[in-house]
Design a protein that fits this description.
heterodimer; A: 215 residues; alpha/beta; 9-stranded mixed sheet; two-stranded antiparallel ribbon; 6 helices; globular; B: 216 residues; two-stranded antiparallel sheet
Chain lengths: 215, 216
């Protein structure tokens, strides 16, 4: 039976940035017809055994919690899973995982702090990627501007969507390969509302299915 | 006390530029008094468990192209081995960094090197265990011009003087639960019989094996 795991942190009494509250609902709806999504909050105990039957690992941890919970064993599990053919989908806060450089190698990118939230015009590139079918249209979405610094040694990285910001264009969604694994990453998903519109949902679903070899 | 085991992956039959036989005797003289050594050029079929049977892997491999068909699985094995706690030391040779994942793991990609020349190596922190007992030294060597991955948190224990200033020439980098090391010098027998290089090499191996100080 197919299965996905979503790494995230719930906000209960104490406020945290980018809690998985609400994102969990959206992600389960997005992949409703594909696989059940298990939300994993105690990912400090993540092992390669836990990931071995996983069709897609979705990363959306709260940055402060990731810093508390991540340890070399967790990094090892994610790296080993991916390099040996795993599938990874990173949402907005996944880039905060790159405080550990191994996760930057895996996502093909590093990020600094985000800019202000605002309406961003997401535009598909001409990458000719399997994910970008005719249904992938431009869309506008309120989201935090997140600058992305690509790791120049990444393998087969392709940008799927970007948006204009001042004089430049900022990558918003991309794919790459890591060993035998496939990784898709987007800066969409800082809060549940960013996953509410049908265009971002469609894009994220296709990215996840591509990584999982189900597209 | 049980002697620690070192696997040395090197080129024995494909010997274009850096054949093992140029340095094998010197390596044995240096390491065999302290460690059990196994030399191989057929690491492509070892698998992760094969590497894990050793305490340290020294990767002195250049003729990567003859293993092109198996290189993706070699890469996966090495990434898995190091992520899970393995230790790999790559003196001088750079072929592994033609693989994207290994370039990231070691923290650099090879650009080129000019003809051999006298190179001045300097020590930024004399208290680092990898350079214990050493002072700045010079070697007639290949000055590797490297593209450094700016995101790699490298612990530099050796630098070299270049026309553009000092650049890293030896470092450790953590990766998952494991550890990598790269060292620029190590071209030939002349270097391997230099007393400073021998001390440095032994220090690096000892440090990676947790003998007398842990890096990072």
């Amino acid at each position: 039976m197919r299965q996905a795991i979503l790494l995230g942190d719930y906000e209960e009494h104490k406020q945290i940035p980018h809690p998985v509250n609400g994102i969990d609902v959206s992600i389960r709806e997005i992949f409703e017809s594909d696989f059940p999504v298990e939300i994993m909050e105690d990912y400090q105990h993540l092992t390669i055994e836990k990931l071995s039957g996983c069709n897609l690992l979705i990363c959306s941890p709260a940055p402060t919690r990731w810093q508390e919970k991540a340890n070399p064993s967790v990094l090892s599990a994610i790296l080993t899973y991916t390099v040996n053919g795993g599938a990874v989908l990173g949402l907005h806060s996944a880039l905060s995982m790159t405080v550990h450089p191994e996760m930057g190698y895996l996502f093909g990118a590093f990020s600094g702090s985000h800019g202000p939230a605002g309406l961003l015009d997401y535009t598909p590139t001409k990458a000719g990627h399997l994910i970008l079918d005719r249904g992938c249209a431009p869309f506008t979405q309120e989201e935090e501007m997140l600058p992305v610094a690509f790791d120049e040694f990444s393998k087969n990285r392709q940008i799927l969507y970007d948006y204009p910001y001042g004089e430049t264009r900022i990558p918003a969604a991309w794919t790459l390969e890591y060993g035998f694994g496939k990784v898709a990453c987007t800066t969409l998903g800082s809060h549940p509302a960013a996953l509410a519109n049908s265009s971002s949902r469609r894009l994220i679903r296709r990215m996840g299915l591509w990584a999982a070899d189900l597209l | 006390m049980e002697r620690k085991k070192i696997l040395i992956c090197a080129d024995m039959t494909k010997t274009d530029w850096h054949p093992l036989h140029h340095v094998k005797g010197a390596m044995e003289n240096l390491l065999a008094p302290f460690y059990d050594l196994t030399f191989t050029e057929h690491f492509e079929s070892l698998g992760v468990a094969g590497y894990q049977a050793f305490d340290l892997v020294i990767f002195r491999v250049e003729n990567y192209m003859d293993k092109e068909g198996t290189w993706p699985s070699i890469t996966n094995d090495i990434v898995t081995y190091v992520a899970e706690g393995g230790r790999i030391f790559m003196p001088h040779l750079v072929a592994a960094t033609f693989s994207d994942e290994l370039a990231q793991m070691f923290g650099f990609r090879f650009r080129m090197h000019p003809p051999m020349e006298e190179i001045r190596f300097t020590i930024p922190d004399p208290s680092h265990p990898a350079v214990r007992g050493l002072q700045n030294f010079s070697l007639f060597e290949e000055r590797m011009q490297l593209i450094y991955d700016l995101h790699t948190p490298r612990e530099v224990f050796l630098e070299m003087e270049t026309p553009a200033g000092k650049v890293p020439a030896g470092w450790f980098a953590r990766f998952g639960q494991g550890l990598t090391a790269y060292l620029v010098p190590g071209h030939d027998h002349q270097t391997y019989t230099d007393p400073s290089y021998q001390q440095l090499f032994l220090n690096i191996v000892g440090t990676m094996l947790g003998e007398g100080g842990e890096p990072l």
